[in-house]
Amino acid sequence: MYRLVRNFSLASAVAIVIVSATLGYILYGKLMGDLVVDTELRNASVARSLVNSLGPNLKAFLDRAGDSAPGYLVSSTEYRDFDIYFRRATQGLGILMVKVYRADGVVAYASEPSMVGEEHLDIPGVKAALDGRLVSDLVFKDRAKGFEGAWLERDLVASYVPVLQDDAVIGAVELYADVTEPLARAISMAKDLIIVTVLLFVMLFVVLFFIVNRAESVIFKQYRAIRRENEDRRAVEQALKESENRLQSFLDAASEWIWETNSNYVITFFNARMGECCMGEDLFMGQSLRAMIDRGLQFDPEKWTDRQSDLDDRKPFRGLVFPLAVKGEQVYIRLNGKPMFSEEGIFLGYRGTGTNVTEAVRANHERSRNERLLSLAFRSSPALVAITDIEKGTHFDVNEKWLETFGFQRDAVIGRTSSDLDIWEDPTARKRMVRAVLEQGFVHGFEAALKTQSGEVREFLMDGEVIKFENERRLMVVAQDITQRKREQEMLRASHEVLEKRVRQRTKDLHAAKEGAEMANRAKSEFLANMSHELRTPLNAVIGFSDIIKHQMFGPVGVGTYLEYAGHIKDSGEHLLNLINDILDVSAIEAGKMELREGEIDIQHVSQSCLRLVGERARKNGLSLLNDVSANLPGLIADERRVKQVIINLLSNAVKFTPKGGEVRLSARMNSRGGLVVAVADTGIGIAQQDMEKVLSPFGQVDSSLARQYEGTGLGLHLTRNLVELHGGHLEIESEVGKGTTVSVHFPPGRLAYESGFPHRAHDDDDGDVDDDEASRAMAGG
Question: What's the whole-model pTM score?
């Protein structure tokens, strides 16, 4: 009995020591593992919080760090801002040191600036983080420097956290968390466990004597416990079998099937669900997963090429789709797989699920086809189509017709608002359209004026509707350029107004024609009355003087008095001839029979000739006759005889209607439009405004008293205006009663010969085609 107790005690002591040491080691390992995991999670959370807070600024900082020297980078304001941010963000979190790596493993930021620029790709944690994996390790550092200055002998958890942006690793963050105190507590707990265990051994050794006394009962109890345990094991095995059957039922009822391969990637198992989904056993069982990847390469080369390397690296994969030919029909299969390893890390094969996604793939193909067709219709539409943000007007897409009409390049439009492009002539018009769209969901027939890039304003008829674009509510506007239509409408409206105006004008012309006919009848009567005086007077003189000469009333014909009378007869005859010539000229012009004999003439020479012809009469009337013709004027393409007739008529009228002591001025100059202006200005009696039309009409004179006081038929100004208009020019009269009259003759620029011109020279008495007698006749006829 005592031997049993001694042996049992020794065995128990050894067992308790081993168990105590083992439990202490296990507890220490668990505490260390939990400590590392918890600290790793906290470090990862801190790192991701820092990265998310910095956002695009961190990416920009890393890019800039790659282009800057370490010394320049550390001294930069941006580096100091990052340092202040990291210090504040990690304050109170037990983070002693932070490093930020670029994608090439070079330190871009460190709480100890001297480390910036160092490359640490040789550190496994850095390499793992840059590969996209989060790793941590428990390390001990006897000396280091961080945010809080230098520190000694610290237990740290170093975590290496990848920095992701758009699913791509752009860098890594290395954080050192201080776990010195937690680690000390863990060691203390392990020691306490050993001590407690030893104490338990002592207590157990004490009570062993009591246990031995009851050994028989204990053994019996153990027997019954073993029997009960066997029964429980059988019950557990039965329950396990039932659970396996239940799991198999669930798998068979699931929409996905289960498959498994060996280490050579050959499929060795799949459940019954595969056969129910149109899969024959010969399609999968014994087939190589790599052979399926070869089929997948034809369907999605880019994705399946990556999966080949995944299989080589024994990585999990998801959502891989490839085609199979089943009973003459194309079927699409989606596989998810995960590698299996033994406890020793030996690769055993893949296990995963599969799904028949034929309908989804076909629907996706149809959707892609519809999207392509919609995109084609969008791009090639003859209407202008734009997709914009509803509120701000930011352009997300426009078609080619829109770009062609407004004259923009696509890069200059996408991402910019209508305000940036300044295309709305009235910015409030867009607000009205958006308000209508938000109230009704659409708008039709909205008219607005928009500006092209060149600044041209065009009219558009627009339809707008809210659509789903990239999972957001957007405004799609379809517009038609109605500028030409509006112009045609305006032209039609203007034509209508012109027609109405013409009708009113025709009616007015009819009334005017009636009044003109009556006025012409009166003018005819006045003309006949005037002509009777103008014709009788020189005819009476001709007859009287001829009768005196015929009857030799002053003696024989050789007497000198008869020569004087002969001169009077000649003057009266010429006066009659001039009257008849004026009447014939007016008739020829009105009948369209007058032809101009055009040539290049010197206006200065013509002006001097005309001034000589009227000079004697001006001197007799006591008038000053002034020449103000500009020198070096270009040649005038005109009928010289008719130009002289025009100038002499104007000078004759000025001399005739200017009282003694007055002044008559002849001038010629170039106007601002490049034409020639010949003007005759006098200080005569002037013409009232209401009499302007009358003096320009044929046979028109202001009143009979003037007709008697000043000789003339009233044809001078009318004939002058017609001759000027035959040359493509026009005549203007400015006059004020009692102060004088200025008559201007305007020849168009096309009548001037700039390339030749006439030199300024002294002229002889030769007057060209129009002799002094003709000019005198023109003067007398005024």
Answer: 0.32
